[in-house]
Structure formats: structure tokens, C-alpha cells
Amino acid sequence: MASLNPPRLTPFLQKMKSHSELSAADEQAILALPHEAVSLSSGSYVFREGARSDQCAIMLSGFTCKHKTLPDGKRQIVAIHMRGDGMDLQNALLVSMDYSVQALTDVELALIPAQAVDSLITQSASVAKAMWVETLIDTSVQREWTVNVGSRIARSRIAHLLCELGIRQEAAGLARRDKYVLPLTQEQIGDATGLTAVHVNRVLQSLAAEGLIVRNRRSVKLPSWDAIAQAGQFAPDYLHPMRVSV
Amino acid sequence: MASLNPPRLTPFLQKMKSHSELSAADEQAILALPHEAVSLSSGSYVFREGARSDQCAIMLSGFTCKHKTLPDGKRQIVAIHMRGDGMDLQNALLVSMDYSVQALTDVELALIPAQAVDSLITQSASVAKAMWVETLIDTSVQREWTVNVGSRIARSRIAHLLCELGIRQEAAGLARRDKYVLPLTQEQIGDATGLTAVHVNRVLQSLAAEGLIVRNRRSVKLPSWDAIAQAGQFAPDYLHPMRVSV
DNA sequence: CGTAACTTTGATTAGTATCAAAAATGGTGG
DNA sequence: CCACCATTTTTGATACTAATCAAAGTTACG
Fold first, then answer.
1. Edge-to-edge strands of the sheet including A55-61?
2. Pick from B121, B142, B240: which is nearest to A94 by CB?
3. In the structure, what pLDDT confidence band is assigned to residue A51 with cuts at 50, 70 and 90?
4. In whole angstroms, what is the distance from residue A170 CA to residue A164 CA?
């Protein structure tokens, strides 16, 4: 189960270290967390709404999203996860999940027994704090998503999402903020921004016409960061200590 | 500064105990947190966007909201707080705030030096976990707010908000879920749901005409819980271990 | 009692959803 | 490597929800 060579959890550790001080012992303990590496193909579910899980998941590669489905069939994507992100750390402590996690691309992730996380944070106060900070940042990002879908017009919502994905991919060492692989279909962009796929398509075309984005298959270029950031009212503070290091 | 008689932090402790096991020593330690009780009048600010604070706040009475202001002047309320809620516990660990906290009514709150919270969680792993759970629940609520403004029509958004406020006031021992004081103006309901005050007014009138709500000054009655819950697609699971105990 | 804040009403417009279908793309098996 | 099928993107026409603008009532409050 555990596998230390190569240390799979390194991306997660890096992210933790970007905002928290960890001792060498803490780092070792995190890397030594027992886990199972799992590969899933695009579209498959990591967790399903309402299920109970005793595992925490950490993204190793690819992209997943968290989404909730409404009685009328609508579906809202509430978060996107990429390399280094921990998902459902709360399974270490909580209850049943009120959302699903689905693979947006082929993904690899590490599944950690929730109990192992629980005992680690019991042992180490600094790891516990670091995990807490992870959650605090998640909350902060979630607040900004609420703002995005609640207060911005379609054009800004989409621009904002594109900026966030750029910054986060850059922070994760996956790409440059102004040129990256967009892991979402237009339908999914709609689910994340509270718009229909048709309208997303029209907005993307208009952004392209203005030269704010250049689309090429599944990748986007953002020729002028300032321009797209302004269109999206994007201010990266809410991503917090997610330092950009490329 | 500290004041143990009467123990002001009891509502907060109760909320923590509703989801986490705490030893007698932990309970004492929480109640003994040094703090200053502060009264603010409606409209005044507890924290301001961008400021840095070295204090955590706990609601003792009244209502506050968290909101973010956009460059175009729009404002999105992203959370509402009431008795027992801890706000900005993250100040124990983090950085600058990317939102403001404003009193919706006259409020009393306890201000705790962030450093005191930090040292408490360093000492007690179980308190640290309980604080973490608080944050996890906040995130869960925030996800549901994202869904609310992102995926629901106006009528459902408002109904959902009314249900949440009812359940939470009931859980906090402030009122019954089906009859409580609504601490928001229609403008503020609009800011929380991503609608204009004018439209909120019209939707409230239509909900009243259907008999789903009965308005009387600042209080609401919800004659049929099932009906309003259905209108709002309200499923309380996202509030998690917030047990209802009246 | 007077004023500011809040709620309500009416008329019009703008933004986005909806519906339907065609075009393009991507992956798969023969 | 091509043909085929499913998925995704694109286009067009229309409907509708909610925003906007403006102003009149109403309520709360000092």
C-alpha cells in the first residue's frame, strides 16, 4: 500500500509548505502516509453524493471537480481540483458527503485511510494547523466562487474562472498562467459558472474576438493577463498563500 | 479582559460540542479564552476587507454578515453569522482578510486575541480538530451558497435562504425554524442571493400570495415547512452536525 | 414630527435561457 | 487508415427572467 519511492505525496507536501511551516519530521510523516495510488478515467466518480467514505484523496495528476446535483437535474460545479490538492480531508473527521467528485480528465490520485490522517493530526499540532489552513483556503476560494456566480455578469464569470485556473496551474507547476490546458468542456464551464453551454460558447467567442483569449483545442492562451484579469475582476488574494513558483 | 462570570463563550462551546467530543479540560480551556466583549450598532464594521487582524470574533448576540465588494460597486453577502458562530478563527493562522464583516443588527461579540486561539489549538489536539470541523462546516455551507446563487431561480434562492436562517436560528436556540426574526432588509436579501432589491420584493410578495410565507415587520412565519423547503430545494444535510435542539 | 431608510409599484430593457439543428471534433473498431 | 458514432461546439430564432430606472408609499427613528 504505502509507497515511498518515488514519494507520491510530494505535490501535496509542497502545497502545504507553501503556506505552513513544517519540521523535517512533519514532512516525513506526511510523505509516509499510507496510501494507495489509483488511476481513473475521465468521467468516473471518485466519491458520490450521500455516500460515506473513510478515505481522503490527494490529486496526483489530472483534474477533478466537486459538484452538486439539484432535484431539477441542474448541476453546479463548486470546485476544481488539480495536482497537489487534497480533497475530502474532512473524511478524517466528518460524516457523509453532500457532493460528488468526478474526474474531468484521466486522473491519478492517492487514497489515504481517513484514520491515518486523523492520527497524524493528533500527533502533530503543526500538521493539524497546516491541514486547517488548507481548509481555510478552500473556504476562501469557495467564497469567491459564490461571488463569481452571484454578482458577476457572464463575461466576467468566465474570465474570472480562466484566471483562477491559470494561477492555480502555475502555482502547481503545471503550466504558465497565460497558457494552459483547459480541462473543462463548455458545458462544464457552464456548470461552474451558472450559465448554459450555449451562452458560454457565445461569451468565449466574444472574448476571442476581443483578443482576450486564444483558443486552440483544449488549451487557452491569455495574451494580456491584465486585460483578462480586469475583465474577470480577478484579484488573486483569495487564493491566499498559494505562492506562484515556476 | 477575560471574564468568566457569566461564561460568555458558552454559545460557541455549545456549537463546538454539537459536532465534536471535548473533554472537561477542553471545555474549560475554551470558556477560559481571554476575550473582550464588544457591542456594535447595526451597520458598523467588525472587520474591513484587506485589513489585517490579530483577533478572532465570536458572536454573542445579533447578526452579522460577511460580504465582498466588487470594483463596480456590487456587493455580495457570502455568509450570515449568529449567536455561537465563530468568525475569522483563521486569524489565528492566516493573513489578511478578503472580506468585510458588518453588523446587520445591534450585536455583541467576543474578541479573542488570535494568539490565544493559536496556543490553545497547539496544546489540545481535540480542540484543534473541533475548530477544524467548524471550518469544514463553513466550507460546506459556502458550497451550498454557491449552488444557491449559481443554479437556482430567484424564488428558490430566497426560499432556500429563508429555510437556512430558520434552521440555524432554531439550532442556535434563538427561535423556531418556522417563525423567526429576519435580520435582513430586502436589499440585503438581494445581496445574499444575487438579486436586486426590487426583484426580491416581487418574489417575497409572490411567496406571500401563495401562502408560503407570512411577513410581519421584520419577522417571518413559514406556515408549511415542507412547502417552503421544496420551493427552496432545501436539504439541510449541508449544515452538517448542526443538531437542532430546542 | 420630520427625515432617512426601506418597501412597493410601474414601465422598459438587457441578459441569458431555451429549443432545435447543423457543423466540427475526437475516439474506436474494422 | 478510414468510416462511424458519440461528444462537443457552433449557429439561429425566440422566450422569459431579472435588471434598470424612476417615483410613490410606508416605516422606523431621533
1. A36-40, A107-113, A55-61, A86-87
2. B240
3. confident
4. 10
Sheet holding B75-81, edge to edge: B45-47, B100-103, B64-69, B75-81
Q: What is the pLDDT of residues A20-44, one digit of tens each?
A: 999 999 999 999 999 999 999 999 9
For A132, left (φ over 0), alpha (ψ -120 to 50), or beta? alpha
Rounded to whole angstroms, the Cα distance separating B242 from B136 reads 12
Which H/E stretch holds residue A184? none
Q: Which of B136, B160, B240 should one mutate to test binding to chain A, selecting the residue with the greatest count of A CBs within 10 A?
A: B136
Strand C positions within 7 A of protein Cβ atoms: 5-11, 15-20, 25-26
Q: How far is CA A54 from CA A4, A80, A93, B206, in A?
A: 22, 21, 9, 45
Is it the case that residue A246 has pLDDT exceeding 50?
no
Q: Residue A75 and residue B151: Cα distance in Å, rounded?
A: 7
Interface test with B, best of A21, A56, A72, A132 (most B CBs within 10 A): A132
Cα separation, A183 vs A107, whole angstroms: 11
- Alpha carbon of residue A240 to chain centroid: 14
Q: Which three cell numbers stand for residue A193?
A: 459558472
Please enumerate in sequence order all residues whose Cβ is within 8 A of that of A178, keeping only pairs 6 or more positions apart, or say none: A166, A221, A222, A223, A225
Closest CA to B230 of A71, A76, A69, A97: A71
Does A120 have pLDDT greater than 70? yes
Report whether pLDDT(B39) > 90. yes
Distances (CA, A) of B90 to A21, A30, B184: 16, 22, 26
Angstrom distance (rounded) from CA A185 to CA B79:
30
Question: Using alpha carbons only, what angle is made at residue B79 by residues B122 and A195, rounded to the nearest 5 degrees?
Answer: 120
Chain B residues near residue A140 by CB distance under 8 angstroms: 98
Q: Residues A55-83: what's their mean pLDDT? A: 96
| Contact by Cβ (8 Å): B235, B160 | no
Q: What's the pLDDT at A244?
A: 46
Beta-sheet pairing, B64-69 with B75-81 = antiparallel
Q: Counting Cβ atoms within 10 Å, is residue B102 exposed (0-12), middle (13-18) or buried (19+)? A: buried
- With CA atoms as reference, report the closest residue to B164 among B141, B198, B185: B141
Measured in degrees and rounded to the nearest 5, phi and psi for residue B103 equal -75, 130
The CA radius of gyration of chain A, in Å to the nearest whole number, is 18
CA nearest to nucleotide D19 C1': residue: B196
Cα dist from B146 to A84, A149, B64, B138, B149, whole Å: 23, 7, 19, 12, 6
Nearest to B136 by CA among B19, B10, B6, B13: B19
- Residue ranges in chain A assigned as alpha helix (H): 10-19, 24-31, 114-123, 125-151, 154-171, 186-193, 197-209, 225-231
